[in-house]
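dumping these here so i dont lose them again. two proteins, back to back, each one seq then structure tokens. dont judge the mess
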Amino acid sequence: MKFKTLSAALFTTAAVSVSGVSMAYDEIVSVRQEPVQPIQPAKVSDPQLVKLGAMLFFDPRLSKSGFISCNSCHNLSRGGSDNLKTSIGDKWQEGPINSPTVLNSSLNVAQFWDGRAADLKEQAGGPIANPGEMAFTHELAVEMLQSVPGYTVEFRKAFGTDKINIDMVTDAIAAFEETLVTPHSKFDKWLAGDDDALTPTELRGWDLFKTSGCVACHNGAALGGNSFQKMGLVEPYHTTAAAEGRSAVTGKDADRFNFKVPTLRNVELTYPYFHDGGADTLVEAVDIMGRLQLGKKFTPDENAAIVAFLKTLTGEQPRIIVPILPPSSDATPRPTPFAD
């Protein structure tokens, strides 16, 4: 690749390869002074833990039905989301909120739209025990894993013991999710100095994104995820969704309808948009956000330019080899997808 304003020395090759996860990235060093930084490649310090986490992420036996896995709602072939307004839980229950992408989620200030989980480890345990999602319990999940000989081997390799507990489970899932980063987007290449990485329309979109005020909330490496903001700052946002936002965690009425600002990385892949999935397209989302958050009505040309810029944020997707899961033993409790 030819760069006009920097040398190849600004890209440091980093390779990672573990069972279930395969990565080979160049580290990007930013040279432009912008309110957004390039996504950096994952650095795996414990490949065995990541391997175990990948297995658990894809294993539907962590749900009561034996059908729902972490990947069901955070599908790694679909931008780390499920492209539904709200996710489908146990017994086809309708979820209360849109499923955010798991990609680059390690960059979030907190997890879930309302920030009720401090980190990925805390988040990983939530859906397993949520009756509207995977509908299991932590105790039953551990019992299931403990009954699978192949899993006891993997936990011994990762933790040095056969005795499994839920902390180990969430540690491993979080370790895997921390590898799900997406560097090398067109925008990252431009940030690193490649003047030819963006078209004039995409550059105009970036300029509009900055000068209109979008970057006040969508900044940092993830272009979001680092603050909570009110949905409907200039005009009220009308929705039938029951989610209250941050106030459900803090108990403060002032935090009502405050939600974690979503990352815009890979946003082309993670439709529909907003906490309620209320916008089906980027054109619609840009129009609504302009009016409700900024008090600005974008022209069709301005909207198209911003959308063109947003599409440059799609990065290199994690190259995942779907793990072969260890078989259940005769003692493994069987799933009960149709039981009350």
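---- next one ----
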Amino acid sequence: MTITARQRLLLVHAHPDDESIGTGATMAYYAARGTHVTLVTCTLGEEGEIHLPELAGLAAAEADQLGGYRITELAAACREMGVSDHRFLGGAGRYRDSGMMGLPTNDHPRAFWRADLDEAAGRLVEIMREVRPQVMITYDPQGFYGHPDHIQAHRVAMRAAELAGPEGCAPAKIYWTALPRSVLAAGMDAFADASDNPFAGVEAPEDLPFGTPDDQIAARIDATDAGAAKEAAMRAHATQIPDSSWLYVVASNFGAEFMGVEYYTLAAGRRGPGAGRYGWESDLFAGLPSQDVPAPAAAGAR
């Protein structure tokens, strides 16, 4: 692959569907404006729940074929977002979905949670050499909500950036996905009297396993025009996100703003110009001239 786009964005996610739920609007927004968007997914999501009864036999405890099926869901989701460069870390099936923290699946020989950090990071460095991304997105050290594969994806991405630094192919800016506490508070208020309240039992945003103080947010990407593409990408992951999902319930109440606005903290690199009370960036490439990063080479070139 020869990449000629001046802007290059790399995303590192744990399972198929994570990219659409957490960063789908951002991906669609940048793809539409000509940025080369590269998605790296670390597992096939073999341990995911199945919300389509007719496919229940694909589950890990049954035929154990869900991972293969989710490859097709991911491909469909990427088409909806306009993303053509999507890869599995080390190739499809190299690393297995570890399941939720503390389950026996964490100890599977191929579980991503058990992957050798430098070996997995080295595989990501190979992609960085080819793509030469200026910007990378992944999770925070807690994996946003504590899933072992999300935590491991964070570790692998950050270690890869460290290893790629001396070669000059590390991203200049690294963002972690985030959700401002003010947004969570607004959602809790809006659903306080709803029968299908997704925040039922939660008294304050601080009680949730995710949520970032507003003054720690670095970027707010307003991609409301890409909200429909994000929702279509989510619907492509039908085994994981049923039509009754609370995500669609929230979307029906907040519409394009919920689907089309995504937030990030800046983990590495210099913050660019922003606006508002906290100086939030509106562009992940803010303050980053394209000449800061060498032109990418064809695949295989070193």
